């Protein structure tokens, strides 16, 4: 299997392991344990593991391994570790790589649970957490000091779609001897630029675009073999954040269609963002590759696409937003994103309800903000749905 293959070919074939039966479709190994032919073989396996050898599913499993190898190949890294969810991956990576006295610098615009892990768990164990405005290069320059161990950020933030100049942050972190961890959910695995910009580890909620059909949770930590099979695997195998082989199988098979799905959803998102921008009831649209986006130049330089999510503000506030949400017929009201079904979310009252008001103000999560996740339906039908709902206002 060639490393030179295009991503579409890798998504179908990379990482496959065939059993002695020669199955076409990847097998699901629903087993937590493995038998050894002899006592000597068991002793040997606990000493060192060969390519096709496993001990216990908390440490590794053949179906999970296929999924790990395929994800690592498409993101351009050496290895990956499968986790129970995106948050198991975020928590696992942060806990594995920090200790008391370390300094972690992070962008402020983070997924709520990531912010919780930093401020309420790592801080409890004596890790210093410094939060910066991720779009401000001068803020990163001031915060990343030689005693910084780790830099954490979301490549495109949720829900406001702020874009970080990732190469600038990676170069600065590396000059100061710090590792960079990128939570890459919004950028999508197809349009990810984390490797090109120099990120050391990519954290992926595979619940999002990889499954993309709202079925199972999953997470992945992706990076160099030394980091993944060193501190990351050691931490995770002892603490139990392992991925279920069933979930790995569902998502491994979902990778076969990932490129088709994400490209279609992203093309729809761009079209919808342009439609919304021209609508009189819409006050402001945020989509990274729309020229009106504040970090448009950086977004265009880094990414081929702005992704599958569009954020916008309705003229008015919460009441108008609720009226709009309730009038939609094709978009469903939910809080996930990247699903085949288009989803509408009012972040201020749901996903970000518990974020204190002063933080909401800093992050731009107003009562007027709506987040759309564009699915696989016809874009024409989605735009007609948005139009009829906006026309009720
Ligand atoms: C969804 C999400 C997570 C958490 O992933 P789960 O699979 O739900 O645990 C972490 N970070 C970002 C940016 C996300 O969007």
TrEMBL record:
Matching Pfam families: Cys_Met_Meta_PP
Supply the EC number(s).
2.5.1.-
GO BP terms in the entry: methionine biosynthetic process; transsulfuration
Q: Which UniProt keywords apply?
A: Pyridoxal phosphate, Transferase
Q: EC class of this enzyme?
A: transferase
Q: Any idea which GO molecular function terms this record carries?
A: carbon-sulfur lyase activity; pyridoxal phosphate binding; transferase activity
The text of the family note is: Belongs to the trans-sulfuration enzymes family.
Q: Which Gene3D superfamilies did the record assign?
A: Aspartate Aminotransferase, domain 1, Type I PLP-dependent aspartate aminotransferase-like (Major domain)
Q: Tell me the residues on which N6-(pyridoxal phosphate)lysine occurs.
A: 208
Name the chain's protein.
Answer: O-succinylhomoserine sulfhydrylase
């Amino acid at each position: 299997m060639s490393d030179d293959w295009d991503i579409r070919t890798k998504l179908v074939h990379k990482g496959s392991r065939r059993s002695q039966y020669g199955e076409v479709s990847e097998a699901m190994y629903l087993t937590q344990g493995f038998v050894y032919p002899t006592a000597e073989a068991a002793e040997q396996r606990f000493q060192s593991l060969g390519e096709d050898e496993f001990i216990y599913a908390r440490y590794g499993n053949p179906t999970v391994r296929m999924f790990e190898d395929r994800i690592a190949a498409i993101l351009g890294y050496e290895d990956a570790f499968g986790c129970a969810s995106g948050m198991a991956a975020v928590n696992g990576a942060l806990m594995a790589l920090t200790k008391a006295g370390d300094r972690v610098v992070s962008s402020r615009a983070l997924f709520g649970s990531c912010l919780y892990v930093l401020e309420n768990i790592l801080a409890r164990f004596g890790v210093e957490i410094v939060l910066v405005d991720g779009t401000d290069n001068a803020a990163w320059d001031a915060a990343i000091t030689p005693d910084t161990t780790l830099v954490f950020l979301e490549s495109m933030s949720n829900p406001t779609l702020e874009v970080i100049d990732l190469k600038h942050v990676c170069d600065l972190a590396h000059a100061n001897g710090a590792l960079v961890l990128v939570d890459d959910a919004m950028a999508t695995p197809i349009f990810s630029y984390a490797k090109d910009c120099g990120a050391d580890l990519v954290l992926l909620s595979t619940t999002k675009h990889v499954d993309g059909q709202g079925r199972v949770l999953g997470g992945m930590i992706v990076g160099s073999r030394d980091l993944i099979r060193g501190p990351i695997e050691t931490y995770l195998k002892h603490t139990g954040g392992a991925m279920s082989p069933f979930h790995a199988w569902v998502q491994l098979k979902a990778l076969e269609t990932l490129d088709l799905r994400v490209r279609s959803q992203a093309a729809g998102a761009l079209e919808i963002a342009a439609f919304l921008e021209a609508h009189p009831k819409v006050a402001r649209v945020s989509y990274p590759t729309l020229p009106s986006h504040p970090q448009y130049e950086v977004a265009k330089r880094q990414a081929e696409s702005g992704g599958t999510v569009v954020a916008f503000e309705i003229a008015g506030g919460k009441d108008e937003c609720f009226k709009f949400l309730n009038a939609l017929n094709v978009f469903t009201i939910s809080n996930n994103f990247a699903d085949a079904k288009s989803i509408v979310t009012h972040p201020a009252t749901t996903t970000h309800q518990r974020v204190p008001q002063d933080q909401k103000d800093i992050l731009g999560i107003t009562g007027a903000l709506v987040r759309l996740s564009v699915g696989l339906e016809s874009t024409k039908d989605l735009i007609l749905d948005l139009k009829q709902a906006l026309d009720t206002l």
